[in-house]
Amino acid sequence: MHKQDDSTENNNREHMRNQRSSSRVKGQSQTKDVVNWDRMGRRFWNEYVSPMANNRLAKIARIGKPAVRRLPGRSPKR
Predict the structure, then answer these.
(1) In 3D, which of 33, 55, 36 has the Cα closest to residue 44?
(2) pLDDT averaged over every residue in the chain
(3) Which of 15, 20, 66, 68 has the fewest CB atoms lying closer than 10 Å?
(4) In the chain, what are the domain boundaries?
(5) pTM (predicted TM-score)
């Protein structure tokens, strides 16, 4: 019984040695960081929308303040 416990412990140690760090796996798989990808997308969009005229829908949506109120009976937020 003691021999079996030793072999299980050795297998666990070997398994731990064979595990890779997440940064190493990320580097090998060439995946992009989601946070940086999102920030780059927002920066691109802001640079694209900034030169537009203020009456363009994309610019109005970026500013985020609607010019009209909601109809009576509709809640202010969804």
Answers:
(1) 36
(2) 77
(3) 68
(4) 2-63
(5) 0.43
